[in-house]
Fold these 4 entries.
Entry 1:
Amino acid sequence: MIDKNVVREIVEEWLKDKEYFLVDIEISADDKIVVEIDHADGVWIEDCVSLSRFIEERLDREEEDYELEVGSAGLGQPFKVRQQYVNFVGKDIEVLTLEGKKLQGVLKSVDGDNFTISVKEKVYLEGKKRPVMDDVDYTFAMDGVKYTKYLISFK
């Protein structure tokens, strides 16, 4: 089986001095390698091809046969690394909490391994008879939610 750390080192060598970042590497039992990269402005197919060739030049098919797939992290897929949170600050996201509650709002900030989402909710304000819509902030640890993902809008 192909060593994930070897693939990671190869990918990180290609990423050096580029604005891309590694999202994930998966290697199945039958040696299918899936590499996901991302970029603040999106991923170009030419760069996926370039990375794929770079990996193929450094892995020996004579030693171990494998299937290789290089692509982007997918816009509607859950975030896997901190940099994805950073790239989506100010954008609409969806969070599924560990308790199973879905929150939709604006990713307000990222601080270390925590992030804050601002959600519009009905709240009771002092002196008001009826609830009003207001922004309520929730802070979560990145590994303290089931998922966080970009909320695609077709407005």
Entry 2:
Amino acid sequence: MNTGSESAPQKGLYMNEGYQHLKNKECQALLSPQGRQIFAQRKIVFGQIKACLGYKRGNLRGMRQVRIDMGLVLMANKLLKYNKRTT
């Protein structure tokens, strides 16, 4: 039984230096001119997928199933773009 005179162990703060390094590296990559261009294109593609296909949320779990699902969605998006371009 705890009488109150004992103090609870203090939790320490742990910083993962490797993670912080990778996080800073990715931040610098995104802030570069090429990174900004790629990120802008990414927003456009996902906006088109949401607007044209109505795809807003994945229903599958697991890396393999999500990759297959996103592959199909991206293929459908490309086919729609191709169809609009050729007609």
Entry 3:
Amino acid sequence: MILLRRLLGDVLRRQRQRQGRTLREVSSSARVSLGYLSEVERGQKEASSELLSAICDALDVRMSQVMREVSDELSLAELAESAAASEKVPAPMRPMLNSVSVTSVTGVPEERVTIKAPAEAVDVVAA
């Protein structure tokens, strides 16, 4: 099962770490407790839209950018889940999922980019 709160927490943590900032700095700037921000980053707590806005402001990053990254990771996680489910299919019939090509959203239809999903980015739970 893919948990949106986990993906969101991972994106927020990476944003913070790219800036070389501590949890304490961001929690103070966002006016949220250190422990709660830590739980959000670990995917243990759901961030409300107000809290997410405060965290994005503290990180000086647009919420749309954060949500775009979450959306990209969600797409990859869904593909990985699909691939894991297809492992029940005999090998000759199994689709290969090493990477996925997506059309850029920059408005240039010919521009293409290949994204490879890191295995650790996805939690797959067998049904």
Entry 4:
Amino acid sequence: MNKNSIEHTQEKYDIRPEALEFPMMSVISFVYVCNAKCPNCPYTNSDIRSTYNDRLYMNEDTFKLIADQSGPYGAWIRMSGGGEPMLHPKAVELMEYAKSVGAKIGLITNGSMFNDDNIHRLLEAEIDMIEISVDACDEQTYSQVRTGLNWDKLVKNVKRVVEIRNKLGGKTKVIASGVNQTGVDIDAVAKYWEPIVDNFQKRKYLTWGINDPAKSADPEPYLPPEEMIPCPFIFERLNIDSRGKVMVCGFDIAATTDMGNIHEKSIKEIWHGEGFEYYRRLHLERKASQIELCKHCPDWKYRSWKHNYWKVVANAEKKRKDVLGFHDNEGCIADNNEGNGK
């Protein structure tokens, strides 16, 4: 696809219809531990994790509070944040719980912790999407951009997830993603993974105000900085750290902003509170430069109102349905191997 043909803006900006009552997505910092030292990770390049030594893993009650409030709205819980979510001792159990109360689950993982047992449990719970951060299409590149992880294990695990999903005829979408960074041929990475998974997502190299912007292989902005187009994040999602504290957006991974704590106020109350209203108002008035956090955000220009997570979900769902069309009535993989990871 010609990136110049991708639409990122729209005529009018405001809170998305799906987010009028409750955020479409809660992005949670489920863990602050990791088994990799990726050079493009802001947690690798900062001391943020050490500030969470008292809460390296989100407590069960905090997660269930998020799930219980998200469920009635069918809202997404995106398992992301400061480390590898599958390292949480209750990761699978808690995702199963979230699905049981009606929430949607999007798991972002490096894929290293998968085994047949947890793969089956996640797929049988019908978590909505598994996104594996791959970033490479060969062992040498992988060892550099995903330091500490094993290439052969990654390929085996990703294929195994897709294989089991297909045999089960499951609803879970499986995608791979790669950061468009120097030293990586992102087109080659996409070409390698696209036949294996439901969708491949090319990610912009983000800095979070920590990483070196010179390492981006595609610095072209989505939103023209000079136009100060409102950032979509404050109109669709919120971020919650392991303590239950809500930050205004995904750029604030150090949690310098405080919109409230879900143990003191409901997510809905925080979403409709003065803090978010203040940010939204100034963004809509094109006065976000008056906000200290937004004024210095180097990643705002890489947000998009149309080329986003929701687009990835839709594309992956279409491919999933196409792939499952190649299965016979007993759920066995048919002779046509298109899209099944072989």
